[in-house]
Amino acid sequence: ALIGLTLAGLQIVNQWPNGYEATLSIPIGNTINGWEIMLKFAGPVSLQAWLGDVQSNVGDQTYVLRNKDYNGNLASGSTYEFKFVVDFKGVSGNLIQATINGQNIDLGENIPVNPGTTAATTPAGSTQGPINPTLPNGNYDYGAVLRASLLFYEAQRAGKLPANNRIPWRSDSMLMDRGENGEDLTGGYFDAGDYVKFNFPMAGTTTLLAWGVLDYEDAYATAGELVNAREALKWATDYFIKCHVSKREFYGQVGDGNDDHASWSRPEDWTKNRPAWKLTNDKPGSDLLAETAAALAATAMVFRTADKAYSDTLIHHARELYDFANDRRGKYSDSIPNASSFYNSWSGYGDELAWGAAWLYRATSDPRYRFEVDSHWNEFSLGGQPQEFGWDDKKAGVQILMARVTGEQKFKQAAESFCNYIVRNAPKSPKGLVFLSQWGALRHAGNVAFVCLQAAAAGINTQEYVNFAAKQINYILGDSGRSYVIGFGNDYPKKPHHRSSSCPNRPALCDWNAYNSPNPNPQLLVGALVGGPDQQDFYEDKRDDYIKNEVATDYNAGFTSAVAGLAHYANKV
């Protein structure tokens, strides 16, 4: 297929061996209140669609999907864009028929999507990384992975770096980041291989990291990394406090994603002022605000004994942000349109409202937040089985966190339903990787490994879930035949899609020549987890493949906390 070619309503957005990503644009005639979309393919496929729930599947060829609770109403005269990802094993995975509520959708001429050939997995080479991957007993050194991952977060820091900066090729950057009234918005983390500060995934990252530090503090302490872990969290929460410029004003993004992605250079060399967008009563963002409240509440518990005053400050901001989120409801990506092309809030804000309330309940024991969780649970139907857990969809997190905190049966049943699906029924690669999405496949595996470890700690199928988590993490660390963590273990990636590590030492120029270089990145981005392989375990170390080879702060979040959980169990043996 030709990338970007629109065929009436069908556009192939991306393509890889044996799969593709597409958008089906559906013109809406009469107003629709609740929809079912049928997709029929030429051969058996694995289908991923985030905008609908699968109601039926006949032979992996004909799928019927029903709207989510937030996207069932489609206005007359509008065009609905239905996004999906297809992986197929046979000759063809072409979409040959589509309907909405029984009415045919014109696909136009069907251009074939060719499966191509799947190349062999890159052969494993000798260990060249600076970190020894195994302990004397042959087990992976999970403590070393924690040390590496925290170094990755330090490489992602924006703003004025501390005197003890451990990344020699990074220095102060983006010191001009300001709000519309000159507010200091320096600090925080660069999102991925770029330099935008997207607060929604940054907050989600912070919550997941804090959860791991909170519940597996012994793992960080044994690794000698507890102070560094707290500092990693504080680098984010200090920035969030800066963004919270008044009770009902919160800056949600610094940097234009489109402008940023048009450049390939060091962050230290960026000279232009960057735009900043804020949420207000008139421009709400319940999902981002409630997720930030969760991040602050979780981090407050990490600091409760180490720095009580700072912990109290975090709780104060968390309470205000949660109230702002709940009182003035709306999706942040509607209020900050620049974010919608990169981190659109597909799942709506109901899951984050419950997530924020759940973390505030755990942090404060205030019964008000317990009531709020139940209210959101019912209003937004959060007891259903989600298909993933990540920066956008927090339902599984709510289910599992509340199962741990309360032990209540409705939460435990939902948590068990999710993890049973993930462990027993979700798609797996031939080597056993749970495969929930082509984009950032390892990020998804790390996230579900972590939350199902938490379900195990709640007494739900404990040994089965711990074994599953170990299998996923060990796949990433080397059981697959290679390591996917840069600087760790065997045949790790050398060419991540990451601007600053692709740059030569200063003062040499860094531009698109660095992007196009066939050589490994000059700087070793220790600890970064790449997107990972496809569903057939195929991976190629190519800088221009941002699906398999980009890195991101949220990629490492659940993964790092899962590693901490496994280290916790290993330390008890």
UniProtKB/TrEMBL annotation:
Transmembrane domains' residue ranges: none
Active site annotation, chain numbering = H497, D541, E550
> What keywords tag this UniProt record?
Carbohydrate metabolism, Cellulose degradation, Glycosidase, Hydrolase, Polysaccharide degradation
Q: What is its EC number?
A: 3.2.1.4
Which reactions is this enzyme annotated as catalysing?
Answer: Endohydrolysis of (1->4)-beta-D-glucosidic linkages in cellulose, lichenin and cereal beta-D-glucans
Q: Where is the CBM2 domain?
A: 1-108
Domain of life, per the record? Eukaryota
Gene Ontology BP term (one): cellulose catabolic process
Which EC class is the enzyme in?
A: hydrolase
Q: Report the InterPro entries cross-referenced here.
A: 6-hairpin_glycosidase_sf (IPR008928), 6hp_glycosidase-like_sf (IPR012341), CBD2 (IPR001919), CBM2/CBM3_carb-bd_dom_sf (IPR008965), CBM2_carb-bd_dom_sf (IPR012291), Glyco_hydro_9 (IPR001701), Glyco_hydro_9_Asp/Glu_AS (IPR033126), Glyco_hydro_9_His_AS (IPR018221)
Q: Which GO terms describe its molecular function?
A: cellulase activity; polysaccharide binding
Family membership, please give it.
Answer: Belongs to the glycosyl hydrolase 9 (cellulase E) family.
The name under which this protein is listed is Endoglucanase
Which species expresses this protein natively?
Didymodactylos carnosus
